[in-house]
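Hi there. Long-time user, first ticket. I'm pasting a complex I've been working with (about 330 residues overall). I'd like to know whether the download I got is complete or cut off, because the file seemed smaller than I expected. Thanks.
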Amino acid sequence: MANMNLIINGQRRNSMATTVAQLLAQLHIRSDIAIVELNRKIIPHERYGTTSLTHEDVLEIITLVGGG
Amino acid sequence: MSRQNYLHIGTQKFTSRLILGSGKYPSPEVMKQAWESSGTELITVAVRRINLNNAGDQGQESLLDHIDRKKYTLLPNTAACYTAEEAIRTAHIARDAGLGDLIKLEVIGDTKTLYPDPIALLEATKVLVEEGFTVLPYTSDDPVMAQKLEKAGAHAIMPLGAPIGSGQGILNPNNIRMILENATVPVIVDAGVGTASDVAIAMELGVDGVLLNTAIALARDPVLMATAMKHAIIAGRAAFLAGRIPKKLYASASSPSEGVVR
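Hi, the file is complete. Here it is re-exported in full:
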């Protein structure tokens, strides 16, 4: 599969990943703690493996952290 | 209405009137013990991008590994959002991610004081209320602002006691009282408390709850301070309900003045 240009957390990146799950694995991010927004839509966890990525997709990979 | 045994927020009710943050603790273990000692049931958390540059390194421990979702309700916040748009977006992410529609709404106006931007806050409150969120806005102690927020549909008013993390306590109890007089939704002091007496003072004024983070997380002994805070909430609330004596200029003896053996 061709290399894709993605925008992840505001940065341009290349990726060979074709699904959200693959992308998280490539980035060494635990899928259980990741909240993924793809083109402004939150993807449910159970669909990480079946949600495909396309060229120029915009992703936010988010989690909950400590705060007041 | 929340002048009774529970703290009512939206459709939820809590036995503890103490809401805690999850930031700045020396370790996850201390954090969990502090939460346990405090008796809290509601914990606020921040929503942030994962740092992609060090994701592989840290063994990827996450805050979520340390929160027992059966014991604690999560209250996502929009901390460090400086525009209504950022705050609204963050709220959407939290809700779409399955965290429910409770949101601690912060729209900050100034980096040094971390005071809220009242105009953007009011705008964001209106939008989020319209979208069905249960909105808890962090605001200044301005009574007019509090009324406007309530009129805009806010489900609680959360006036600061002093700047976030400053530990100064309730700097303007008179304003908190004025807010209480007009509010028909819960009033929760959020920010600036430093120690147990600050929390007790807030509760004695008649507020419905207190939200704090730094006062426990950065205390020398956070777990012990959490215990102190738990008692302060209970003591302050009971004192409020008990009806205190008025302050008088002159003395009024407690023992009879007659029959002294002279």
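A couple of notes from our side: Chain A has a mean pLDDT of 93. The CA atoms of residues 5 and 14 of chain A lie 5 Å apart.
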